[in-house]
Amino acid sequence: MKKVLVFFAAVAMLSFSTASDTISKKEKKSAAKFLKETKKEVAAAVKGLSEAQLKFKPAPDVWSVEECLKHIAVTEQALWGMADGNLKQAATPEKRSEVKLTDEDVIKRIEDRSTKVKTMDPMKPENTPYKSAAEALESFNQSRDKLIEYVKNTDADLRNHVMAMPFGSLDGYQFILFISAHSNRHMQQINEVKANPGFPQN
Q1: Residue 94 CB neighbours (<10 A)
Q2: 3-state secondary structure of 112
Q3: For residues 147 and 30, what is the distance between their CA atoms, to the nearest angstrom?
Q4: Measuring CA to CA, how many Å separate 200 from each of 29, 46, 55, 61, 70?
Q5: How far is CA 202 from each of CA 19, 31, 51, 195, rounded to the nearest angstrom?
Q6: Which one of 62, 127, 192, 201 has the lowest number of neighbouring Cβ atoms within 10 Å?
Q7: Which among 171, 153, 184, 159 is positioned nearest to 36, based on CA atoms?
C-alpha cells in the first residue's frame, strides 16, 4: 500500500485546507449523491455472484469481476488516503487558471471506456492486498463512506487546490468527482464481463 500512495503522490499533488468554502451546498449535495450512486452501482453489479462468476475471465488479458473489484478498492483507498494526508496543506489559487476541464468533462472522460488506459503496477489486481472479492468490496465501501462524509461536512477551499493529471489539471472538487467516476468506469467493465457469452450461469 505504501507504493500505491507514493505513486499517486507523484502523479498528482492534491491538497486541501480549511480556508473559505468555495463550493456551494448544491455542489456538495451533488457530489455526495454521485458518490452514493456509484457506490450502489458497484454493489448491485456484484450482488449474488458465485465464486465461479467472480473469477471468470473472458480472456487471459481481461480482468475478472473479482479483479475489477480489487482494482476499484485499491485505487479508492489510495486516492482517499492521499487526500486525507494533505488536508492541512495550503491552497494553490495561483494554479486555478490551469484548470481547463468542466466538472462534466471530468466525469465524461473518466467514465468513457472507449479509451483504454493501462493501469500502473501498484493498481493491478494481483498486487493488491485483498484475498477475495468480498474483502475488496468491504474496503471500497469503507473508503467511499469516509469520502461521502468528508464531502458532506468539509469547509475546505476545494476549488483552489489544483493538481496535475495526465489529461489536464483538476481542482479538489473535480478530483472527488474523478474518484466517483473511476468506480463507475470499472463497474461498466464488470457488466461487460457479465455480458460475455461464456459467463457462468451460476
Answers
A1: 9
A2: coil
A3: 13
A4: 39, 14, 10, 18, 20
A5: 52, 36, 9, 14
A6: 201
A7: 184
Q: pLDDT per residue over 9-36, tens digit each?
A: 444 333 333 334 468 999 999 999 999 9
Amino acid at 106: V
- Set out the domains of the chain in order of their start, with CATH numbers: 2-194 (1.20.120.450)
Helices of type H across the chain: 2-11, 25-46, 51-55, 65-85, 103-111, 133-153, 172-194
Which is it for the CA torsion 195, 57, 179, 143, positive or negative?
A: positive
For residues 79 and 8, the answer to whether their CB atoms sit within 8 Å is yes
Helix (H) or strand (E) holding 21, with range, is none
- Reported as a single tens digit per residue, the pLDDT across 86-127 is 456 788 899 899 999 999 999 999 999 998 888 989 999 999
For every residue of 133-159, DSSP letters joined together read: HHHHHHHHHHHHHHHHHHHHH----GG
Q: Which residues sit opposite 170 in a β-bridge?
A: 163
Which residues are CB-neighbours of 192 under 8 A, at least 6 positions away? 113
Class of residue 100 by CB neighbours under 10 A (exposed 0-12, middle 13-18, buried 19+):
exposed
> How confident is the model over 126-155, as pLDDT tens digits?
999 999 999 999 999 999 999 999 999 998
